[in-house]
Design goal:
The structure holds 2 protein chains of 2 kinds.
Chain A: E1 4-7, E2 10-13, E3 19-29, E4 34-39, E5 46-50, E6 54-55, E7 63-76, E8 86-91, E9 103-107
Parallel strand pairs in A: 2-9
Antiparallel strand pairs in A: 1-3, 3-7, 4-5, 4-8, 5-6, 8-9
Chain B: E1 3-7, E2 11-12, E3 18-25, E4 34-41, E5 45-53, E6 58-60, E7 68-73, E8 78-83, E9 92-100, E10 104-108, E11 112-116
Parallel strand pairs in B: 2-11
Antiparallel strand pairs in B: 1-3, 3-8, 4-5, 4-9, 5-6, 7-8, 9-10, 9-11
Chain lengths: 108, 118
């Protein structure tokens, strides 16, 4: 079973800062099968990025994804107050379609 | 714009069957996409349960496969989840989702909390 490990587990940052979140896979996966989601308290997750680097509809361009093989990143170029949330990576290259454990972004 | 809404009992007894329905509006489920279920609990995070395609083909998480059934009702534009022999470990918020390319979940319901307890 493919496992996704996200780091760090949590971060405290200020609006305006740049942040890069990491997602490491236990096996090589195609970048076509890697997605990122954002979840705010009390809300359902929302698709941000698919195919490692393609923004979903309506996602601001301050969000970007990259990576290949086993290492993938989500970068937020300039944090807005609404970006403080939990971020999950997810693969679907092979069953089961697992999620990472999440990275929580908190306001400093 | 597609909307998904879960419904079903919020409390299920151990060893019984959990049943949830997802009503879809704004898109005909027979037209395409995959339709599925994901659950979230503090202990296990986000866990994919399974998907169904418009042709009825199903794809299940191997860890749950023996207990899960996902089905479509195109006449009502809804799909359903059945999870048998539940235990406390099945307590979670259950989300119904729409997926493209099998596993990119682009639309989510608001979630339904299901507690397994006697």
């Amino acid at each position: 079973e493919l496992v996704l490990t996200q780091s760090p587990g949590s971060l405290s940052l200020s609006p305006g800062e740049r942040v890069t979140l990491s997602c490491r896979a236990s096996q090589i996966i195609s970048s076509s099968y890697l997605a990122w989601y954002q979840q705010k308290p009390g809300q359902s997750p929302r698709l941000l990025i698919f195919a490692a680097s393609t923004r979903a509809t309506g996602i601001p361009d301050r969000f970007s994804g990259s990576g290949s093989g086993t290492d993938f990143t989500l970068t937020i170029s300039r944090l807005e107050p609404e970006d403080f949330a939990v971020y999950y990576c997810q693969h679907f290259g092979r069953s089961p379609y697992n999620f990472g454990q999440g990275t929580k972004l908190e306001i400093k | 714009q597609v909307q998904l809404q879960e419904s079903g009992p919020g409390l299920v007894k151990p060893s019984e069957t959990l049943s949830l329905t997802c009503v879809v509006s704004g898109y005909f489920i027979s037209s395409g996409y995959y339709w599925g279920w994901i659950r979230q609990s503090p202990g296990t995070g986000l866990e994919w349960i399974g998907n169904i395609y418009r042709d009825g083909n199903t794809y299940y998480n191997p860890s749950l496969k023996s207990r899960v059934t996902i089905s479509l009702d195109t006449s009502k534009n809804q799909f359903s989840l059945r999870l048998t022999s539940v235990t406390a470990a099945d307590t979670a918020v259950y989300y119904c989702v729409r997926a493209f390319s099998e596993g990119i979940f682009d639309s989510w319901g608001q979630g339904a909390l299901v507690t397994v307890s006697s």
